[in-house]
Amino acid sequence: MHELSIARNLISIVKETLHDRPCRVKAVTLRIGRLSNVLIDSLEFGFSALTAGTELEGARLVVHQPAPLLICGACGQETILNEIEFVCPHCGSMNITVKGGDDLFVESIEVEEDAL
Amino acid sequence: MSVITVERKVLERNDAVAQENRALLQTNGIFSVNLLSSPGSGKTALLEQTIPRLKQEAAIAVIEGDVQTDLDARRIEALGVPTAQIITGGGCHLDANLVKKALATLPVKKLDLLFIENVGNLVCPAGYDLGEDIKVVVISVTEGEEKPLKYPAVFRNAAICIVNKIDLLPFLNFSVERLKSNAHAVNPQLQIVLTSCTTGEGIDEWCNLLRSLRRKAPSSASV
């Protein structure tokens, strides 16, 4: 449900960035962490519904989903978090911080300039 | 074809308004608590137990977020504290802007403690900073011990987890120990308090925890 609100925010960032530049948006690249609670399919659906009939119609969403990194406060090892288990696999410590899991960023916009 | 680098947070507008809310709350010495849970875990009942215990020592207000109806806000108003109702009309979470508008209707200069009761939902509210000092997640023992593993985002960002309805434990196959170990696997720092809003058990412990967190919060420096 909140993917629609995220799509709306995303569209306004794209429009602000382009501010009436004469171009066609081919793709918008996003970075969405796996712990950010965003369902990519719903976001794509919301984005296509909100952009239908606008200058952004047909733009693709390219989503990078970096795996979160566990950093152990006890042994210092860094591990990629695959399962949702916040325990250091090296020493079993639960004293960990997580990096990059809840990222929700617009990375870049790919455009085709209009012919003059 | 050209690529324009953007590198902006999708929810940056929400985060900016949340910072405005945080500044307003801190300047006025208000400690603020964002209450999150599934529908029916007992957020409103928890407030009904908490407010009478704390209102002698702190001027309290409540922002009530609901999808529909002002039924919960009326329950809180009956406790004699200022209440601002946000009806989201289907929206699954509160955002910083809704809270900003609600704050404008409350006597912020006179307040010490603000509870924001979010929309009942363990998914979407986790992504929206409202400007609060702490998030508190409420779960009830009828929901099962695996909730923290299924909804890690909300448990990772919370300072306190209230495990409510413990008066029902004799009737359920619910292991408090398993719940605690699941919750701590997701968030080792999470403080867990067992409560029953029916019997009042655990409510004093929760109030004491709130008092101590309030004393440590940046807002207490402004009083």
Describe the structure.
- The complex is a heterodimer of chains A (116) and B (223).
- With 116 residues, chain A is α+β, with helices and mostly antiparallel strands.
- Helices cover 25% and strands 31% of the residues of chain A.
- Chain A contains two helices and six strands; from the N terminus they run αβαβββββ.
- In chain A, the strands form two sheets. Chain A has a three-stranded mixed β-sheet, covered by helices on one side. Chain A has a three-stranded antiparallel β-sheet with strand order 4-3-5, with no helix packed on it.
- In chain A, strand 1, helix 2 (40-51) and strand 2 (60-64) form a beta-alpha-beta unit.
- In chain A, helix 1 (2-18) packs across helix 2 (40-51).
- Chain A is elongated, with a radius of gyration of 18 Å.
- Chain A starts with a helix and ends with a strand.
- The model of chain B has no long low-confidence stretch (mean pLDDT 94).
- In chain B, strand 7, helix 7 (176-186) and strand 8 form a beta-alpha-beta unit.
- With 223 residues, chain B is α/β, with parallel strands linked by helices.
- Chain A binds chain B through residues 1-2, 5-6, 9-10, 12-14, 17-18, 26, 30, 35-38, 84-87, 94-96, 98, 102, 104-113, and chain B through 1-14, 91-93, 95, 123-124, 126-128, 149, 152-153, 156, 184-188.
